[in-house]
Design goal:
5-stranded antiparallel sheet, 3-stranded parallel sheet, alpha+beta, 7 helices, 273 residues
Length: 273
């Protein structure tokens, strides 16, 4: 038995999130006995993504959690133990693991459905589970990333463990980048949207990017711009519009809170491409 801590949902937020909506549970004992396919992961870093807010509602597009559940969160960490058949035959990567916290752990995150492999961050029970051929080699000491939850030690079901992805090491790239610019919620989604769902924009064309100041849209706008397209963002409010044309260097921005579709500034911007 080991212990860890976790944040759980105490009440569903009404409008803006309040600290009273959450509760920190400490010194929770977690059984280290694992069933087939389960894994224990010591969480090292978590990301705070916009889609997590929707999961706190009772009916959520990305899949809702129940009151008392561990707050959902993407993150990365080190495998403490694994009941993966392949991992059992592999020696640990290192005899020394980071010290476990002296207090608190997370029970299995049964309420968090696996990430859909075909729709970015859209959680669905109707889609078949698939996983990388590498994820079953959950060797103790290896670093993995995925839906771990807001806890210090995550005990994952076989289905959840199967959706973990192995972390890769790139020279000069910090591991936190895989929760941001190289992560599934921003960089990867943006790249797939621009280069796979759409087609890569060509020089001389005009690309219109909605949500251009968000985590995904800002990257998508940069990808379109790098490809040579005259890129226009869509955002709400003067501050976001200024960010598009300033920090992001876009050719223009349609402020949907101030403009009428089909005329004015949108028409002027689009007329150039």
């Amino acid at each position: 038995v080991i212990s860890s801590s976790r944040w759980e949902l105490r009440a569903r937020p009404n409008g803006l999130v309040s600290v009273d909506d959450f509760a920190l549970q400490e010194q929770i004992e977690i059984d280290t006995e694992l069933d087939e396919g389960e894994a224990l992961v010591q969480v090292e870093m978590l990301s705070v993504d916009a889609f997590l807010r929707t999961m706190l509602d009772e009916k959520a597009y990305h899949g809702a959690i129940s009151l008392g559940d561990t707050l959902p969160a993407l993150g990365y960490g080190r495998v403490i133990a694994s009941a993966s058949p392949k991992a059992k035959s592999l020696p640990p990567l290192s005899a020394s693991l980071p010290c476990l916290p002296a207090s608190a752990a997370s029970p299995p995150l049964h309420s968090s459905p696996p990430l859909s492999p075909t729709r970015s961050l859209v959680l669905s029970h109707s889609l078949p589970l698939t996983s990388s051929p590498l994820v079953h080699q959950l060797r103790p000491g290896s670093r993995v990333m995925g839906m771990l939850g807001a806890c210090t030690v995550a005990k994952l079901s076989a289905e959840q463990a199967a959706m973990l992805m192995p972390m890769i090491s790139l020279p000069g790239v910090p591991p936190t980048a895989f929760l941001g610019i190289l992560g599934i919620t921003s960089g990867i989604t943006a790249w797939v949207g621009v280069h796979a769902v759409a087609r890569p924009p060509r020089r001389g064309e005009t690309a219109l990017v909605s949500g251009a100041t968000g985590a995904t849209g800002s990257v998508a706008a940069q990808l379109a711009k790098v490809a040579g397209a005259r890129t226009i963002g869509v955002a709400g409010g003067p501050a976001k519009a200024a960010y598009c044309t300033g920090a992001l260097g876009l050719a223009g921005c349609v402020d949907y809170k101030a403009e009428r579709p089909g005329g004015g500034e949108p028409g002027r911007l689009w007329a150039g491409g």
